[in-house]
Write a structure and sequence with these properties.
- Helix content is 77%, strand content 0%.
- With 109 residues, the chain is mostly helical.
- The protein has one domain.
- Helix 3 packs antiparallel against helix 4.
- The radius of gyration is 18 Å and the shape is extended.
- The N and C termini lie far apart (69 Å).
Length: 109
């Protein structure tokens, strides 16, 4: 029995998948790198840097369908990913809260 890694078809499929998802992977990687460097530069711990990088990466990956919805190219995700990594999770949460308070009506008690 042959291992799937040894067959040429596996590598052709893997490289085809990779070539289709390069903008997404690049944006996610730059987002993680920016977030991690920002935390370490600010005096945070490695644990904080890894967690912040992971969360910023997930936010960036979640942003890509939104870009497609608005007709923006997927390559725009790279700039958005770096911006997300630079702002960080706390700042993004604050911006989302302010946007929600502005756009959504509050329930009166």
């Amino acid at each position: 029995m042959t291992m799937p890694e040894k067959t040429p078809e596996f590598w052709v499929l893997a490289l085809a998948w990779l070539s289709q998802h390069v903008p997404t992977l690049y944006a996610a990687g730059l987002s993680a790198l920016m977030a991690g460097v920002r935390i370490i530069y600010g005096g945070g711990t490695r644990r904080q840097a890894v967690l912040e990088a992971a969360i910023c990466t997930l936010i960036t990956i979640g942003l890509i369908p939104v870009l497609e919805y608005f007709g923006l190219p997927q390559n725009f995700a790279t700039a958005a990913g770096v911006f997300i990594g630079f702002l960080g999770v706390k700042k993004l949460a604050d911006l989302a809260d302010r946007f929600a308070d502005f756009k959504l009506p509050r329930r009166s008690d």
